[in-house]
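Consortium newsletter contribution from the modelling node. Members have asked for a concrete example of what our holo predictions look like. Here is one, prepared for the zinc ion complex that several groups have been discussing at recent meetings.
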Amino acid sequence: MKLQDKLLQLKAGRKAILAANFYNFETLSGIMQAATNLKTPLILQLSESSIRYMGLPVAVAMVKAAIREFRVEAWLHLDHGSSVSMVSKCLDEGFDSVMIDASEKSLEENIEITSQVVEIAAGYHANVEAELGFVPKLGQKYKDNEFTRPEDARKFVESTGINALAVAIGSAHGFYKQAPKLDIELLARISQTVPSPLVLHGSSGIPDTMLIEAIENGICKINLATETKNVFMLALKERLRNNDEIDLRIVFPYATKAVINLIEKKLKTINKIR
Ligand SMILES: [Zn+2]
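And here is the predicted structure:
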């Protein structure tokens, strides 16, 4: 099934899918093991910095092999694509889905760049996600009027033809210094105004009850990145404390296990598994 069809199916059923970023073999393996254990579909995401770290062909080959090997229903998605050329490269390498993020530009420019991506992606039958409103990146804060406005969202989706819309409703990338608060009422209005499935960025640290409320009010894709890096590194540091082990194949599985536990927990929440 194409991801765009899966997302529409989820929207109709008021359900959501986890979209997990991975950074190396270990995090990919942990995420896939969790999805296998719970038999749930999921989206695997690569950011541009992870692509630079692993190299595009290697990262893609690793994902494709993992999907075959683990027999999980999964799709490969580009997270926060910054340019039309980057999106094109990823589509050429076989991505199922791409995000073009021109959310820091004006509405008109965002529409123009996003429309170009939709046209290119159509040639690959790929899913396209874009962002309207502005979800703060690491180290940034919300400024005034940066939440997604329902009428703008409708105009944006209709003019561009995107499959999924990332909305700014109070979440932020990275960890939260204060308890996060999502504007669920605004989310519900966007969901009623816009036909496309909605995406929540910055879910790390958002309480489960709030995630469930977001899903019930129109969120179909939940992006998770920061928490995965965090549990991986914490487990690694713990394992290496007063320990001279040099065999990374003995050390890394502890960190991978922490990823499995985290992703299983998130999958259970998002897929309502008890
Ligand atoms: Zn994001």
